[in-house]
Design a protein that fits this description.
globular, 4 helices, D-amino Acid Aminotransferase, Chain A, domain 1, 2 domains, 199 residues, alpha+beta, D-amino Acid Aminotransferase, Chain A, domain 2, 5-stranded mixed beta sheet
C-alpha cells in the first residue's frame, strides 16, 4: 500500500497544529492497517533538528509506523485562477504520498494555475488544498470535500468558517475563494470568483 503523509507547518521553530495532524494520521492508520502501536508524531519530531527561523514544510511519511520525516523549505505557490474540473470517481479520503489521482485532472487546467474539482456537480477541493468561499459576509466551505484538511478542521472548530453544500452553479453567489491547507491560512491565497473558470 502507498505511504500516507502528514504535512506540518514549521513557523520560526514552532510546530503548528500538531494535535490535528496526529488525530488525522491515527484515524487513517486505524482504518487502513487496524493494528500496530499508535503513531507518536510528537515524539518523532522531538528527535529532529527543527529550523529556528523561516517557514518549513515537514512531511511525516508512514504506513503502520513512521518511516521517514522530511523538513523542506517552503515556497508558496502563486494561484490566481482555477478551472472547474469534474471528476465523478475521485477518492482521496486519506492523505496519500502518491497524488497520481490528480495528474489527469491537472492536465485539464489549461492556462489556469490550478483546478477546482467538482464531483457530481458539487464543489470539493483544489489539487492541493481545501477551499473556503466568501459571500460578502461569511466564509463557508463545501460539505462535499475530498480530504478532511487540518486547517479546515481548525477553522470549523473555531467557528470562523461554516460547512455548507455548494454546487458549481452556486459560484456566482460568492465574491472570492481562499485556498486553505496546513501551509495556507484563510485569506492568504485568494482567487476572485470571476477567475474561477468553468469547463
Amino acid at each position: 500500500m502507498c505511504r500516507l503523509v502528514e504535512t506540518i507547518k514549521i513557523d520560526n521553530g514552532s510546530i503548528r497544529d500538531l494535535a490535528y495532524h496526529a488525530a488525522r494520521a491515527e484515524k487513517s492508520r486505524r482504518e487502513l492497517f487496524s493494528t500496530g502501536q499508535p503513531l507518536d508524531i510528537e515524539g518523532a519530531l522531538s528527535r529532529q533538528i527543527i529550523p529556528p527561523q523561516g517557514i518549513y514544510k515537514c512531511r511525516v511519511l508512514y504506513r503502520e509506523k513512521i518511516e521517514e520525516i522530511q523538513i523542506l523549505p517552503y515556497a508558496r505557490r502563486n494561484i490566481q485562477s482555477l478551472r472547474v474540473v469534474e471528476a465523478e470517481n475521485i477518492d482521496y479520503v486519506h492523505k496519500y504520498e502518491d497524488k497520481s489521482a490528480f495528474e489527469s485532472l491537472l492536465a485539464k487546467k489549461g492556462s489556469c494555475d490550478d483546478i477546482l474539482i467538482a464531483k457530481h456537480g458539487y464543489l470539493t477541493d483544489t489539487s492541493f488544498s481545501n477551499i473556503a468561499l466568501f459571500d460578502g459576509t461569511h466564509w463557508v466551505t463545501p460539505s462535499t470535500y475530498l480530504l478532511r484538511g487540518t486547517q479546515r478542521e481548525k477553522l470549523l472548530c473555531q467557528g470562523i468558517i461554516h460547512e455548507v453544500t455548494i454546487r458549481v452553479d452556486d459560484l456566482s453567489r460568492f465574491q472570492k475563494a481562499s485556498l486553505i491547507n496546513t501551509m495556507l491560512e484563510l485569506g492568504e491565497t485568494v482567487v476572485a470568483v470571476e477567475n474561477i473558470i468553468r469547463q
